[in-house]
Amino acid sequence: MNDGSKKSRRRRSSSLLYQEPQESMEHLSDQSAIPNLNANWVNAKGAWAIHFVLIVALKIFFSIIPGMKPDTSWILTNITYMFGSYLMFHWVRGIPFEFNAGAYDNLNMWEQMDNGDQFTPTKKFLLSVPICLFLASTHYTHYDLMYFTINVLALLGVIVPKLPMSHRLRVRFLSGPPDDRYLDER
């Protein structure tokens, strides 16, 4: 029945976690041929300042809503920033440009930044911003247990994907199945 002429079907793992495989030589050469415009902007002048501008704008926006308590505006600022940060840096894979032959299709923005190196100045800054926002939000909510719990969960949701142990690690029910284009190259 299986004479080798038919392509066998790949058996899918039932595991919730899977490790994204390393790129092939072709993909590595595609990545080095053209600068990655999707991730290089984080090292540009003013890129760090936008995070503070966004946090202040969110705080002002939530504070001017009638009937909004300062505690609630701080926690909404924290959750909104953390959700946006997770969505931008860890959820979306690939790049919006089609000039690199799909070299970054299976990498999220955090993995694309600084060529995947860990603990660069930019990544340290982006790791510290959620922590500082957590500390400020916790302080201004007067260390209320419910707000603290929400803040900690939001912080963990953003910090854990940034750690080296999470590099190329995917949670299947959150990020979808792996792309099959690497299967034949392993």
Strand-residue fraction? under 5%
- Which spans of ≥5 residues are poorly predicted at pLDDT below 50? 1-11, 180-186
Global mean pLDDT: 81
User: How does the helix and strand content classify structurally?
Assistant: mainly alpha
The ordered string of helix (H) and strand (E) elements is EHHHHHHHEH
Write down the overall geometry.
Answer: elongated
Number of strands: 2
How far apart, in Å, are the first and last alpha carbons? 25 Å
Q: How many alpha or pi helices?
A: 8
Provide the spatial order of strands within the biggest beta sheet.
1-2
Radius of gyration: 20 Å
Helix content: 40-55%
Major β-sheet, in short?
Answer: 2 strands, antiparallel
How would you describe this structure to a colleague?
The radius of gyration is 20 Å and the shape is elongated. A two-stranded antiparallel sheet has the order 1-2. It has 186 residues and is mainly α. The chain is built from eight helices and two strands. Helices cover 50% and strands 3% of the residues.
